[in-house]
Amino acid sequence: MKQVYFYDKNTKAFAGYDLIEDTAEVPENATTVEPVDENGVGLYDPTWNESTHSWDSLTEEEWKKKYTVPEVKPEPTQEEQATAQQMLLMADLQNKVDTLTDTVDEMTKSNQQINATLAQIMLQNATNAENGGK
Predict the structure, then answer these.
(1) Residue 17: closest CA among 5, 2, 29
(2) pTM for this one?
(3) pLDDT in tens, 27-69
(4) Are 26 and 20 in contact (CB under 8 A)?
(5) Cα–Cα separations (whole angstroms), residue 82 to 77, 79, 85, 88
């Protein structure tokens, strides 16, 4: 059995392969030449070149340009948009809560310092009054 590689009669584009009997004649639109490069690596979009009896190939860059489909970003549903909006609002509220918590903590510390200072002043006044203002 031998392997043959088919190509389209009009475009000469690779069209698959099959096994045929060793004694069978290779079909008109086929060849026994494998569509690989000199290193045995498959070709990009191979096409049969009748004049050179070999396969032509696109470069990797040409193949990517020809077949790469631009990424289509799906539109979010109304529910997804509403959920995203709620998440943004929650994040904003959390940020405001954190800011208020920090402010309350600072005010509590400041108030404690004021109370300590006031207590020292009151103690000083009481001491002064006991000593008769001396």
Answers:
(1) 5
(2) 0.50
(3) 999 999 999 998 999 999 999 999 999 999 999 999 988 888 7
(4) yes
(5) 9, 5, 5, 10
- Give kind and range of the element (H or E) at residue 39: none
CA dist., res. 42 & res. 57, Å (int)? 9
For 53, which DSSP code?
A: T
Q: Where are the beta strands (DSSP E) in the chain?
A: 2-7, 14-20, 30-31, 44-49, 54-58
Q: CA-based Rg of the chain, rounded to a whole angstrom?
A: 42
Query: Are the beta carbons of 9 and 25 closer than 8 angstroms?
Result: no
Long-range Cβ contacts of 8-13 (<8 Å, 24+ apart): 11/47, 12/47, 12/48, 12/49, 12/50, 13/45, 13/46, 13/47
* Type of residue at 107: M
